[in-house]
Amino acid sequence: MAASIGAIPINFVDSDPVEQILAQEPSGVTRAVDCVGFEAVNANLERQENIVINNMISVLAMGGGIGGIGIYNSQRNSSGAPLAAEYPTSLTFPMPELFSKALTYRVGPAPIMEVAPELVQLIARGKARPNFITTSEIGIEQAPEYYDRFSRHEEVKVLINFP
After folding, report:
1. Which residue of 14, 24, 79, 97 lies most exposed, with the fewest beta carbons within 10 A?
2. What is the spatial distance between Cα 121 and Cα 50, in angstroms, rounded to a whole number?
3. Coiled-coil ranges per the record (predicted)?
4. DSSP-assigned letter for residue 126
5. Which stretches of the chain drop beneath a pLDDT of 50?
């Protein structure tokens, strides 16, 4: 999927992602973006909330920057989020390395309402093609099955059609 848009695929299950990235960019990368948040998993596909931030710090060059739009908010369990309390309220990461590399770290929700009009125009003009990440299109009755598939990392993006 990454290669289809000109990116270099990094398969963190087959080998260490830090080594793969530094093999391509020995001096480190300028920017890294966390789009996963608390649901990050390690090479064994087990949840490890801090692995993405730790790996990003390891691959960033001096003066680089981290952006984060992954979900990092904590909440109580509810009918809409029955497992919410399983997520931690804090992360451990190497602050000395963040400091010594003079890295910047900026996180927060994406400003959807601000960027949506421009994104719609890019899609309409054919400049952006977000459908390349869609792995399945289903009816609402299949949603429970596909939530399970997504949890097992068998799906990337599922579109749900309503009757």
Report:
1. 79
2. 36
3. none
4. T
5. none
Long-range contacts of residues 19-25, Cβ cutoff 8 Å, at least 24 apart = 21/59, 22/59, 25/59, 25/61
Position 138 scores a pLDDT of 97
124 phi-psi bin (left φ>0, alpha ψ -120 to 50, beta other): alpha
Summarised one tens digit per residue, pLDDT across range 124-141 is 999 988 888 899 999 999
- Render 74-102 in DSSP notation, one character per residue: -----SS-TTGGGS-S-----HHHHHHTT
Q: What is the 3-state secondary structure (H, E, C) of 5-66?
A: HCCCCCCCCCCCHHHHHHHHCCCCEEEEEECCECCCECCCCCECCCHHHHHHHHHEEEEEEE
Q: Are 41 and 153 in contact (CB under 8 A)?
A: yes
Token code pair at residue 120: 């719609």
Domain positions in the chain? 1-110, 112-163
